[in-house]
Each structure stands twice: as C-alpha cells, then as structure tokens.
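We modelled the chain as a single entity of 237 amino acids. Its sequence is:
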Amino acid sequence: TEKEKKQGWTLLFNGKDFTGWRQCNSTGMASNWVIEDEAMKVFTAPGKKPGHGAGGDILYKEKKFKNFELELEWKISKGGNSGIFYLAQEVTSKDKDGNEVLEPIYISAPEFQVLDNANHPDAKLGKDNNRQAASLYDMIPAVPQNAKPFGEWNKAKIMVYKGTVVHGQNDENVLEYHLWTKQWTEMLQASKFSEEKWPLAFELLNNCGGENHEGFIGVQDHGDDVWYRNIRVKVLD
C-alpha cells in the first residue's frame, strides 16, 4: 500500500513471476519452483523423494541486506520441511578429487525453520524443540511454539539489526539472539554445525554475512511442497 511504501517497505515478490529471484549458485531459476495462487511454490522434483531436494534453493538476487525487517507468509504440506535464510552467501568448495562443489544455502546462513511440527520427524530431534517452526534451526527453540497446522498460512518476521536478531511467528516474537558474539560461537559449537562435525559450515556461520555483515535473503528446496507469499522487506539504517 502507499502507507507501507512511505514506511519504507519494499516487495521482494510480485505474486506473478520470479522477477528478482534465481537459484542459489546459478544464473537461472530452479525448475521445480512455480507460481500458484500468487505464491511461490516449490514441489518435489521429478526423480527425487520428499525430503531430498534437487538443490533448488532460491534467493532474492537484486541486493544483499544488512540491517532489515523481513516479513512473509508460508504454508507447508503434510510432513513438509523448508527454511528461510538471511545473511546468506553463495559458496563453492572442492571435493577430495578437486572438483568444484556448489554448497547449499544453509551452510552459510542462519535458518528460520519452516516445518510441519505435527508430522515431520525433525520436530522431535535436536534439543528442546529447536528444530520446530520459527526456531533458529538446531540452536534456539521458538517460544511460544504457535505455528499453525500444515495447509494453513503462517506469518514469519525476521529482524536483523547490528547483530541482534529476532524471529517472530504469527504476530508474536519467539526468540532473540546476537550474532558475532561469544554466545553465537558457543551455540554453533553445540549444534550440528560444530567445528569438529562440519568445519566449513562452522567457519562460514561463525562469520555469517562475511566481512560486511550482509547477505542474501533466500528460501529452501528441501524436497517438499511449500508456499511463500507477501514477501517484503524494510531496510533499517
């Protein structure tokens, strides 16, 4: 609306096509994303089983964001899994034979978990429900846990400002933490991204956003059907 424009909000998705978006580590758009009822939808790619994505993570390509508020809505299929990422980088590495490997978006970016809590096994893994919807994946649980069931729309809000991060779900703030601090490093070390378990992820996430503390906004292809709409951002100076 005009009022929202004056408040500084910008739409990242026009509800009609993928203008401004592309596949992570690619110049084109992932083939298993479509527009459905003014939402972007990812579906299980041909030949892939649910839960085993085709690598079709996508990101808003026009700019990186540093201090911002992000708002959007998401809807998940039964047993579905996805994620919203911020401060993301596009990362390549080498395998043992020296071949280039395109790394997934989650290796460099904090994740706002998108999940069907009632039917996906990840909801019962991790620690203290820290893999349920709106959690900082595998690190901090969303409290209260107020996600709606699969097939219903949820509101997501992410605020990043000078290292302070707040996740909101369905009009309630559910967690807060602080990047680039001793607390952040300790949380990483206690997660699946620890230096011993996954040194590349630990290094990238410990300094997420890189030298300028900025990165892409993106959403995940985890192999399940999921919808995103009304994606908007407000830059915070």
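As a brief sanity check on the tokenised model: The helical segments are 2-6, 182-189, 199-206. The chain has a mean pLDDT of 94.
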